[in-house]
Write a structure and sequence with these properties.
Layout (H helix, E strand, L loop, with lengths): L6 E8 L5 E5 L5 E4 L2 H15 L9 E7 L7
Parallel strand pairs: 1-4
Antiparallel strand pairs: 1-2, 2-3
């Protein structure tokens, strides 16, 4: 019996050189883009490519945006 993924979560971070990166949690998908809007399209496209032809693919994609700030005390 195979376990169907209902949702894939991507950890989204600002890239040091600019833009954003998205890393799939528990799945081997990584993509990047200059803007968040472009990143959304890239993630959807990467998911389609990864699950191409598979009948049971995740129906939801969750983007978890991480924003680290460094403050001086």
């Amino acid at each position: 019996m195979s376990h169907r993924l209902e949702e894939v979560v991507f950890l989204v971070e600002e890239a040091p050189e600019g833009g954003y990166t998205a890393h799939g949690l528990g799945i081997s998908i990584v993509t990047e883009a200059e803007t968040l809007e472009q990143l959304r399209r890239q993630v959807v496209d990467a998911m389609r490519c990864h699950f191409d032809g598979q009948q049971h693919h995740p129906r939801l994609i969750r983007l978890h945006l991480v924003n680290d700030e460094v403050l001086t005390a």
